């Protein structure tokens, strides 16, 4: 299948992913003499830091996931294609993608790969069945259905206290920012939002456990903020178990082992997996063709200018890239994306100078400003300035009006930190409409404890597991209406 626009005449920059890395790279190229194609498997730009608020009924999915197409609608040199990239041929400079179940080839002159990372279960992928991660809108909506669903089921089981206790026990695995935020929110939900809504159970009796193999919460924030967050959560009633690893996850609960070897089984219905990340498998594809190395999480060890060995035209950014000293956070992805866009423009400018490389076949090297050319790969400038990360700090909310913030040597906790968190998140949510409606929802939640986004559907609850039972690739045929033929029934015997 050919893409509707075919091959652009300008230097073609293909960007894989519409997260922080992909979107900010596309935006940074808005004035460049290039054609930009953003290929992403979802139609939205997801603001992952607020996924936990979708899962706990504060925000709707639209507020944190505006359409990428809408965000880039005024950027004339950019187009957006919903496609799942399955392979990259670095020699032919072609991306193989699946659009609406049709395979397509997208040729590129420069490639920015920003496909992010998924959840890692540290080799125990079977845990995912009962403990969804927190990486996508699907995850957040499934968790919303599981969290609110647990209270509903408990109300119906009120005469069986053992089962009520299991249903009202929530286990969050991983005490990074996501785990801390989830644990705090589930506890607030049970003690405030749902307080008066049930007749046979007391939601405030819900237990929320936060588990982590490390010795402190929020490791990346340092000891002081980790302890502050721990105190705040414990005050809210969250049970924290540090130095504890999960050894098994079943429908019935979670098996754990502490550092003294003591084993325990926590009976619980709803589990949230907020530990560990695994970079996109596209990293492996790139590594096998370019000789780039991968780290333990599958991140590509890029060169100091974010490119791959012998492939200056391929840049890897965001959660998929390993760059020493750069954490897997939005700022890392944004800064790398802007740098990658600047590198491409630098190389284009270099190509306008006489020292361009001779190109193979019909590809002709001509000036970057010429609209009628097929662009050639320019010679890379000698020793480009390496990427430098500017650490703007880290922040996480613990509860309503309480957050922890670390900026350089400064540490903030409590209400001031929470205001900083609020302002910064509002600034980075894409789209004016989204900002306004998020502000309204926050006002409702923070002032009245109400939550406007509590609806959940059976699809959200069971869709992922149902699709897994069908096997990979089934959603395409189902969407096209190609249902498996029903097995022929034996005709009933005539009386
Ligand atoms: C729950 C959660 C909370 C977080 N909280 C914070 C926080 O408070 N502060 C902070 O700074 N950071 C936070 N982060 C981290 C931050 O969100 C990431 O570092 C950032 O999103 C990385 O950007 P990215 O572009 O590399 O990847 P992503 O934002 O994950 O984007 C990846 C993109 O690639 C697309 N994609 C993936 N595979 C393919 C494929 N094969 N074909 C086509 N498209 C593909 C996806 O659809 C997506 O559009 C959080 C992350 C999570 C999950």
Question: How is this structure best summarized?
Answer:
By secondary structure, this protein is an alpha/beta fold. The protein has 14 helices and 23 strands.
Roughly what is the average pLDDT, rounded to an integer?
Answer: 89
Shape: globular
Structural class: alpha/beta
What is the third-level CATH name, the topology of the domain at 2-41 and 83-119 and 278-375?
Answer: FAD/NAD(P)-binding domain
CATH superfamily of the domain at 2-41 and 83-119 and 278-375: FAD/NAD(P)-binding domain
Radius of gyration: 25 Å
Identify the strand order in the major beta sheet: 3-2-1-7-19-18
- CATH uppermost class of the domain at 2-41 and 83-119 and 278-375: Alpha Beta
Give the distance, in angstroms, between the N- and C-terminal Cα atoms: 56 Å
Largest sheet: 6 strands, mixed
Question: Percent of residues in beta strands?
Answer: 15-25%
Question: Which residue ranges are poorly predicted, with pLDDT under 50 across at least 5 consecutive positions?
Answer: 354-375
Total number of helical segments? 14
List the ions, cofactors and other small molecules found in this model. flavin-adenine dinucleotide
Helix content: 25-40%
Count the strands? 23
